[in-house]
Design brief:
The protein folds into two domains: 216 residues, Malonyl-Coenzyme A Acyl Carrier Protein, domain 2 (3-Layer(aba) Sandwich); 60 residues, Alpha-Beta Plaits. Helices cover 40% and strands 15% of the residues. The protein contains twelve helices and ten strands. The strands form two sheets. The chain has a six-stranded mixed sheet, with helices on both faces. A hairpin with a 6-residue loop joins strand 7 and strand 8. Helix 4 packs antiparallel against helix 6. It is globular and about 55 Å long. The relative contact order is 0.17.
Length: 299
């Protein structure tokens, strides 16, 4: 069984599009640019880090790069999973969303989240090495902080206001949190602080056509595979303020002989999957040099 993985916006570095210059699949960047009205080639080739990682730019650039990699690979997966923004890439790959509709939703989502971050400022931290019991106790002590991403055993991302996260970090040792790493992000994503973006995103989703699609996509909010007629507008709306249950999504896949291929920048998801499913074959493709042997060769 082959599972396609699609990363979220935290995987970008300047110049990630440069190795793809001249590759036939780079036409996807131009197609997404035309729909979005944004010069994505410039973003992924020459834009400085500060501009590239701005919430609206980062989401669109990540989506476009993933669609380009998927086009270059041209493999038929049996299931798709995206992490946060990557869920939209997964839905497009599965043909539940058209490229035009997925692009428009990514643009609207990025802008809505950026605006929400202005209204309700916040940030995120990665907590490494904490078990569930320690983490639950810490969150009970600082109730304004919530779990944003369940990434893998021993790796959880928390979100909250800048003030609440500062309290958490200051008291980390007392709370049993050995390693708390601030993340360079534009807001408290997947937390109640994103609520100001809900109405805008919900309206865009409810105006969008979701097709049956070729394959199911596992939803972040319930770690369950869904076809295109299975309530995606509601699932994506809930994802905006809800936890990304990536670890549960990977663990829920039944059967042996699993192969995963990450389509897009960074290789972050491949590393997480290694920690969740040691029995699986895993490969990450973000560069043309990674295109050979894409049928899930172990890395």
């Amino acid at each position: 069984m082959l599972i396609a993985l699609f990363p979220g916006q935290g995987s970008l570095r300047p110049g990630m599009g440069l190795p793809w210059r001249g590759h036939p699949a780079a036409r996807r960047l131009d197609e997404v640019s035309a729909i979005a009205g944004v010069d994505i080639r410039r973003l992924v080739e020459v834009a400085p880090l500060g501009e590239l990682v701005r919430t609206d730019n980062a989401q669109l650039a990540t989506f476009a790069l993933s669609m380009m990699v998927a086009d270059a690979l041209n493999v038929e997966a049996d299931l798709a999973i995206g992490h946060s923004l990557g869920e939209y890439s997964a839905l497009c790959y599965a043909e539940i969303l058209s490229l035009a509709d997925a692009t428009r939703l990514v643009v609207e989502r990025g802008r809505a989240m950026a605006a929400a971050s202005e209204v309700s400022p916040g940030s995120m931290v990665a907590v490494l090495g904490a078990n569930d019991e320690v983490l639950d106790a810490a969150l009970a002590h600082v109730p304004g902080v919530v779990i944003a991403n369940e990434n893998a055993p021993g790796q959880t991302v928390l979100a909250g206001s800048v003030e609440d996260l500062a309290i958490l970090r200051a008291q980390a040792k007392e709370l049993g949190l050995r390693k708390v790493i601030p993340l360079e992000v534009g807001g408290a994503f997947h937390s109640p602080l994103m609520a100001p973006a809900l109405d805008r995103l919900r309206a865009a989703l409810e105006a969008t056509t979701f097709s049956i699609g070729r394959i199911p996509v596992v939803a972040n909010v319930d770690a369950t595979a869904h076809r295109g007629d299975d309530g995606w507008a509601g699932l994506l709306t809930a994802q905006l303020t809800g936890t990304v249950r990536f670890a549960s999504s990977i663990a829920s896949i039944q059967g042996g002989d699993l192969s995963f291929v990450e389509m897009g920048p960074g290789g972050v998801l491949a590393g997480l999957v290694k920690r969740i499913r040691q029995d699986a074959k895993i490969r990450s493709v973000g560069d043309p040099s990674d295109l050979d042997d894409t049928e899930g060769a172990a890395t």
